[in-house]
Protein 1
Amino acid sequence: MNELNFTLPFIPSRTDKPRNKGVTMMMDKGLGLRETEDFIEASAHLTDIVKFGFGTSYVTKDFEAKINLYKSAGIRPYLGGTLFEAFYARGCYDDYLRVLDKYKLDLVEISDGSIIIPHKEKCKIIKQMSKYRTVLSEVGSKDSGIMISPAKWVNSMKAELDAGSWKVIAEGREAGNVGVFRPNGTAHTMLINRIVAKVAPESILWEAPQKNQQVWFIKLFGAEVNLGNIAPNDIIPLECLRLGLRGDTFFDFLPSDYADRLKHVNDENEISMSDE
């Protein structure tokens, strides 16, 4: 990263944009043009891709102007997977391709979180799309009542990567309470461990809108984990988590002797204060 204001030792390295790992995806749920400009001014250097959440692109004013703002700032925008599903469910797949062409979108999401698409058909679409565009494909259901076995998660992710997906998105929704998360927002640890035992973590983009979820993934995979569904105002706070500049990850990137010594001092201070 070149956008740093001063130097600190023991800060984890971050690859520069455009990057293949440590990707940050912001979820735009209807920012206005002025808000978009403000976001770009503050956070474009930390943001790789922007998803126009669910069907918001259908009703957003000045949509093409927003797309051009993101592109000019070095951010790749794309339409949310739910919009693809809305076209597909209505038998309008070719119309969807025309929308992508109209707005010159070279990044596309293929998902089946709200409807059922035979997996062979989904992989066929991914293969076709990947010839001309970069494909993100999402695995997992938006319905909390649908349970998917770890084996099916793994097989689906591997098949979609083989079909041409750049990254597979692990479903979490904008609330972070389905898919790889329990209804209370905590991670399905066993499921995630089973997934990464078979699928390279750098090939997965984890939807993690909640701070505790972001912390959990950074502690597990490090600063270069791919994270998505990040709110506009959380991009800079997330980068601070990645770099060990917030309390939640403060000790994760310090050398062990530093961390042990500082933790020992903190423990002694707590004991001293409790004695007063």
Protein 2
Amino acid sequence: MPYFLFLFLFIFSLYDYSPAQKLIPGDGVRLTFYNISDEISGDYFIQRDSSLQLPFIGPIKTGHKDYSSIKKEISTRYDSLYRQVELIIQPLFRISVLGEVRTPGVYYVTGVETLLDVIAMAGGETADSDMSEVYVQRKDQEFVFDAERLIESGEKDKDFFLQSGDRVFVSRKWGTSRNTAILVSAAGLIVAIIALFR
């Protein structure tokens, strides 16, 4: 791998990813090694008991630790195993993208992706989506965003950064073809009933 690309990834990995944020079961880490022969680069996920099983260094307990602490422990353990190891560590935060997107499902973000980024990851909005009402559920809180306005304005600083466990829901437009058909059918039924009574 070219040195400048490794340097870029290394600097990127130093981004603090909101260091107080915790990794919870279902989240994971992405390890990328560049100067060892062992093929152990990959994504590793936290189990229900909050343990993170990694190659050659054994399990790491992640409960009650923030991401920065976990990252430091992983780096320290591999430094003691390999000499001058070149290792990039990134968090993988589990989120759900639902509603009017082309590929709804579970996605993993590294902490730098925004609301618009994860909608793009899910294939983008459908023809029936209402991007003026995009909901983000975070524990017992709910946020509503006008993503359409955000796209039009291009104000990236107003975009929303996601955290582990967030659920993104893209609304459906009122008055799409399906809804219109329901309204027309209902109107037809009402007219038929009125005609019958007359």
Protein 3
Amino acid sequence: MHWSDYLDILLVAFLIYRALPILRSTGTIRVAKVVIIGVILAWLTGVWELYTLRYLLNQILAIGLIAIVVLFQPELRRMLDHLGGLRLQNILGVEQPAQPMDPVIDQTVMACEAMSKEKVGALIVFARENRLDDYLKTGTLIDGRVSEQLLRNIFFPKAALHDGALIIRDGRVAAAGCVLPLSESDRLSADLGTRHRAGVGMSEVSDAVVIIVSEETGAISVAVGGMLKRHLAPQTLARLLRNELCPDQEEKTGLVVRLRQMMKKDKEGQKK
């Protein structure tokens, strides 16, 4: 083997390592299953000498690329949207300095709790690795500090931007009045309206965390990875946002608590 062979292996392994989370998070696992099943069936027909079935499978696989594009167009579109929104630093694994999210989460939870009591509809998107630039262009750019008053004013029923989504990026209100893609999933309940379908759709095409406050019932919901968690209490909402938006901080906090407990036990043991 030459140096180019080692480089080739390393590059392929790196691309697979970076691509697997993207494929898993966008629902394209269905496409992969179909391709794998087709390849396995073609191999088995050759081993068992099923010539007629093998001929039919070869004809199907010959036009399989076109069939996959037609049948799985939504999944492929979501994957391309997700890839297009990633930055080069994220693909290469270069970490950016983390923004403090605790005050942002606290202000957001207080705003959602107030809007839930008043039955004011809201749709708040937290952008993560996917920058959501295309969706920012559909709304009004703000670039403001996140506060309870600002969020409640934006979603006030008579406000100009209350019908769209608000996007928070890098710990700041990036834009409001944004248009989000609607989910086409048949697993959603029939009683869910456009706001919930837009929130789930946004979580399907990106890694964003989306908060939905129902205008009819005041219930708070969160959509992550195409899954919708409904009827959340403010405390549960705060815990979920911290787990999703600052997992490293949660892990460090848990480690500190465990270390303090161990030190306390050691001191008690020494006293005894």
